[in-house]
Amino acid sequence: MHDLYIFITGPLAWAAFILFIGGSLYRLLAMLILVNRKERFIFSYMSLRYGLRSILHWITPFATVNMRRHPVLTVVTFLFHICLIVTPIFLLSHVILWDESWNLSWWSLPDGLADFMTIIVIAGAIFFLIRRIVSPEVQFVTSASDYIILAIVAAPFVTGFLAYHQWFAYEFFMVLHILTGEMMLVAIPFTRLSHMIYSPFTRAYMGSEFGGVRHAKDW
Length: 219
Ligand code: HEM
Ligand code: HEM
Hints:
Layout: H1 2-9, H2 11-38, H3 41-45, H4 48-58, H5 65-69, H6 71-90, H7 92-102, H8 111-134, H9 136-140, H10 144-165, H11 170-190, H12 195-213
Helix pairs in contact: 1-2, 2-11, 4-12, 6-8, 8-10, 10-11
The structure holds protoporphyrin IX containing FE (HEM) (2 copies).
């Protein structure tokens, strides 16, 4: 158990972070190079003003028509993403690990709040799962990979929650937590989770098209 722990928190953790950061940079560069070669005209009408305006508009809850049409989905999606990103970065147990390894430390969440935010992420994942199963229009565009991706995202939260509470099999869940956390990081650049990398660009592109070219409202 000890050797396994050393391996997954050492070389494997390095590999996961390098693949996550390197893979994300690679996907970003590959996109820019492809656009430059094939669709260079896009640069000529990308507008900083309309691009930023559109990103702001679309990260504001209920600002768009579609969000107002689906209020429950909107609340769940916002809470899910905020907790998903904020919790692991500001979790005290994680901040301590960065401090021990790199002497880097930053502000952290009270444990009770982090635990609650973890539950929100898990509940959000269950909501997305049920929605995929029961809603015919979502079912229609769902394939096996959607379930796998949802499981990859939920796993570090479920195992982190179980390890934190130490109800049973603490060491087992801790190892599983680190492994699933590393899997999620690596999955970000190489699966549809790369929407984290691409979404600002697609949004800015749509915003530029609607604002700068069509002079239309950006719904
Ligand atoms: C990559 C290596 C990782 C390591 C070494 C690690 C380590 C830890 C440790 C030591 C704990 C505390 C368990 C305890 O109190 O005994 C924890 C909890 C937690 N981790 Fe990680 N973690 C990693 C990755 C991740 C990732 C990628 C995520 C999510 C994206 C994540 C989310 C969480 C959550 C949500 C909790 C528990 C929150 C709670 O209910 O209190 N971890 N982790
Ligand atoms: C920071 C930039 C991000 C933005 C702007 C963003 C945006 C979105 C949007 C608009 C949706 C669609 C929600 C809907 O069904 O209406 C979505 C879904 C989703 N996002 Fe993100 N996201 C981001 C980061 C992430 C990250 C870092 C992860 C996980 C590692 C993630 C995991 C998911 C999952 C699992 C779903 C789909 C749930 C489902 O329908 O099965 N997102 N995201």
